[in-house]
Amino acid sequence: MMQCWSSQAEYAPIPVERAEGCWIHTTDGRRIFDLRSAHECINLGFKHPRIVDALKDQLEKVIYVTDDFATEPTGKLAKRLAELTPGSSSKRVYFAQSGAGAVEAAIKGARLYQYNRMFHEGGLKASDAPGQYPYPYKIISRYKSWHGSTAGAASLSGDPRRWFQEPLTVPGVVFAPEANAFRPPFGGPDTFVEENLSYLEYLIENEGGNNKVAAVIVEPVVGSNGIIPAPPGYLAGVRAICDRWDLLMIIDETMTGMGRTGKLLAIEHSGVEPDIIILGKALGAYCPLTAAIFSEKVSASFEKNIFGHGQSYSGHALGCAGALAALDFLLEDQFLETVQSKGQYLESKLRRLADKHPCVGDVRGLGLFYTMELVSDRTSNTPLRKTTEKYTSTIIREVSEFLFKEKDVYVPTDKFGIWVVPPLIVSESEMDWFTDAIDVALDFVDARLNQ
Fold it and tell me: Are 158 and 178 in contact (CB under 8 A)?
């Protein structure tokens, strides 16, 4: 087996006997807490009985047919997602098998929407730029973003993993700065949102306005590159800019969807209505299932025009049955409100640790999606892992390995600090347990920095 984003010589996967709840049980008797929720895919923990029962039931009916046919769970899931997501329920849903696959669908959908407007629907309302070939195709993305590893999705990502693909990236992507209150690319604490949005608008204008730009894509909470929640007013500002320039707003909820932030979608915290929503990772529960959800405005463009995209296994009935069971559980008995209260408890624990340990520069997150960014000096906020050191041996990697080997806590090794993303079913006693482990790990970091 090839391990992703790694050299293979030292690949030594740990044999697993079973997994249940928040825990992985290995064949040699270890019990490991999964503090990254299986790459953020297992929001409801391992072996959730209602999801397992739904999968068993569906296995006895139909597992997969092509989209020339319809199955009950696939149709029901598309309908529910259209109804539950912001805006009109007259949406259309494209199902894929990975977040990157859904991003590819969103990119193509946005570009084809603009193509249809220019050539089939009477043309665009032009900005000052001259109308000329080709149609609007550019996607404005942001640095400190990750949208997936396929050619289009990686090209859209302001992340070091894009560099593996260069110079053969897909053309038509332009990067804006991220909106990070802890490390604003420009401006001060009171002005960085306004200045960030001003630069975004400047970028759109200088890339040709709506004659050349098709869409803006944003993670409502930046995921892999630091768990950075959008600051107040930012997402509404992006929406206003897209409306002003007649562009599409794409929201990538691959990590933040399915209750991770205490609401079904993170975009709900801002009240903003996107044109395209990407769901991934936890959507299919235990099956590979993701979605690109097209608003009524966008999907109407494909009523008479071809949607030029497709994949085998799209709309897999088994995955859709699992997703429906997960949605049912998420949306009943104030479960999402419970996620919010657990998140508040977790944040209070992490902030007490930050007060104790000088190596913690920032604690940030939303719901049960948190990180502790580690620094060598709080005055300068010098990071313990730079962007260019993603695959370098740093103290961040050491502390992650310490947590895994000494405390049986599984976290990523390539982030900017300690990743704190437990399954949504986590208990307070489990949070007490793993934050005690983090406390010891931070002692390890402080000691290393004082050598």
Answer: yes
Residue 19: beta bridge partners? Answer: 24
Asked if residue 176 lies in contact with residue 141, where contact means CB atoms within 8 angstroms, the answer is yes
Contacts of 196 (CB under 8 A, 6+ apart): 176, 177, 179, 184, 185, 186, 187, 234
Are 274 and 297 in contact, with CB atoms under 8 Å apart?
A: no
Record the tokens describing residue 377, joined without a space: 């000096």
Q: What does the mean pLDDT of the chain come to?
A: 94
- Bond prior to 134 in cis (omega within 30° of 0): yes
CATH 3.90.1150.10-classified regions of the chain? 16-34+335-449
CATH 3.40.640.10 placement within the chain: 56-330
The single-letter code of the amino acid at 28 is D
**Arithmetic mean of pLDDT, 145-172:** 95
Give the DSSP per-residue string, 76-135.
HHHHHHHHHSSS-S--EEEEESSHHHHHHHHHHHHHHHHHHHHHTSS-----SS---SS-
Rounded CA-CA distance 129/115 in Å is 17
Helix, strand, coil shares of the chain, percent, nearest 5, are 40, 20, 45
Rounded to whole angstroms, how far apart are CA atoms 265 and 267? Answer: 5
**Tens of pLDDT, residues 251-305:** 999 999 999 999 999 999 999 999 999 999 999 999 999 999 999 999 999 999 9
Going by pLDDT thresholds of 50, 70 and 90, the confidence category of residue 122 is low
Question: What is the fold, at CATH topology level, of the domain defined by 56-330?
Answer: Aspartate Aminotransferase; domain 2 (3.40.640)
The amino acid sitting at 404 is: F
Residue of 282, 279, 141 whose CA lies nearest to 215: 141
Q: How far is CA 349 from CA 209, 248, 440, in A?
A: 46, 39, 14
Residues 358-361: contacts with CB under 8 Å, at least 24 apart: 358/446, 358/449, 359/384, 359/442, 359/445, 359/446, 359/449, 360/417, 360/442, 361/182, 361/417
pLDDT (tens digit, 9 = 90+) per residue, 359-389? 999 999 999 999 999 999 999 999 999 999 8
pLDDT at 110 (0 to 100): 97
Q: CB neighbours (10 Å) of residue 60?
A: 7
User: Are the C-beta atoms of 154 and 161 separated by less than 8 Å?
Assistant: yes
Closest CA to 220 of 184, 189, 247, 257: 257
Could you please state the CATH topology (level 3) that the domain comprising 16-34+335-449 is classified under: Aspartate Aminotransferase, domain 1 (3.90.1150)
E-state strands within 177-297 = 213-218, 221-222, 228-229, 248-253, 276-279, 290-294
- Strand boundaries in 355-439, DSSP class E: 360-366, 369-377, 382-383, 409-410, 417-420
Element (H, E) at 428: helix 428-449
Indicate if the pLDDT at residue 27 is higher than 90: yes
